[in-house]
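Please fill in the sequence for the structure shown.

STRUCTURE ENCODING:
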C-alpha cells in the first residue's frame, strides 16, 4: 500500500513538473485573438527590442465596452489607474490554446457592465472583422447577380470556420443571408436548419425580447429576430 502511494505521489509530481515545463516554453505570439462568442478582441504587435504592444476591445451587456492598450514587459502592463497607489495591472499568460488575460484595478477602462478578463483564442485569417466584411460584400454581389450556388459557397463556410469567434449579431445576419440563399436554391430544410440557433428568440414577441434583454441588446437583436421570423415562414412553405 505504501509503495502504491509513493508511486502515485511520484507520478503526480512528475505530471506537475511536466505541465510547468510546458508552460515555461509557451510564449506570447503576435497576432489577433478573439474570445469565444466574439465579445473580446486582442491584438498583439511586435515592437523594437522584443517589446510587445497590446490592444483590447470588448463589449459587455447593454452596449457597455472596454478599451485598453499598452506595452508589455514580461507579459505584464502597468497602466494609469484610479490613483497612483492603485494602477491598472494587465497580465497576458500564454496558453496552449491561446492567451489568458487578467485585469486588476482596471475598471476605469470599462463601462459598468463590461470587462475584458478571459481566454482569447487565435483568430483565423478568414474571421477578422475586415475579412468577414469583404466576404459578405462578395456574397451580396453574387446574390444580386442571382449566382446563388456561388453565393452560398462564399458565405456559409464562415459559420464553421468562425463558429467560436462570431459575435451574436454577426452570426445572426450571416445565418439569415445563408437562409434566404438556401430558399432561392429550394433547400427549405437547410434553410430551417441554419436558422435553428435563432428559433427560440424568433418565437418570442418583441415585448418579450425587450423584457428579457437590456435595452441596447434588445434593440440590436430585434432586426435579426424579425428577419429570422420572416425567413422561417418562407422556408416552411412547400
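FILLED IN BY: designer on duty
SEQUENCE:
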Amino acid at each position: 500500500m505504501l509503495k502504491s502511494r509513493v508511486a502515485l505521489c511520484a507520478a503526480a509530481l512528475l505530471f506537475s513538473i511536466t505541465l510547468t515545463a510546458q508552460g515555461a516554453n509557451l510564449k506570447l505570439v503576435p497576432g489577433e485573438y478573439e474570445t469565444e462568442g466574439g465579445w473580446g478582441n486582442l491584438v498583439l504587435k511586435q515592437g523594437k527590442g522584443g517589446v510587445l504592444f497590446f490592444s483590447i476591445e470588448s463589449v459587455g451587456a447593454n452596449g457597455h465596452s472596454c478599451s485598453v492598450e499598452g506595452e508589455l514587459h514580461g507579459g505584464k502592463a502597468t497602466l494609469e489607474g484610479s490613483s497612483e497607489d492603485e494602477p491598472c495591472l494587465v497580465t497576458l499568460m500564454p496558453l496552449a490554446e491561446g492567451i489568458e488575460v487578467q485585469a486588476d484595478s482596471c475598471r476605469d477602462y470599462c463601462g459598468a457592465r463590461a470587462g475584458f478578463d478571459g481566454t482569447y483564442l487565435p483568430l483565423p485569417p478568414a474571421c477578422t472583422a475586415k475579412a468577414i466584411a469583404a466576404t459578405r460584400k462578395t456574397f451580396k454581389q453574387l446574390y444580386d447577380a442571382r449566382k446563388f450556388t456561388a453565393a452560398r459557397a462564399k458565405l456559409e463556410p464562415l459559420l464553421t470556420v468562425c463558429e467560436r469567434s462570431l459575435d451574436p449579431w454577426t452570426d445572426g445576419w450571416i445565418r439569415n443571408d445563408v437562409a434566404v440563399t438556401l430558399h432561392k436554391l429550394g433547400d427549405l430544410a437547410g434553410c430551417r436548419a441554419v436558422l435553428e440557433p435563432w428559433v427560440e428568440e424568433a418565437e418570442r414577441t418583441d415585448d418579450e425580447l425587450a423584457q428579457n434583454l437590456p435595452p441596447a441588446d434588445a434593440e440590436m437583436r430585434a432586426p435579426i429576430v424579425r428577419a429570422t421570423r420572416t425567413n422561417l415562414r418562407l422556408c416552411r412553405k412547400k
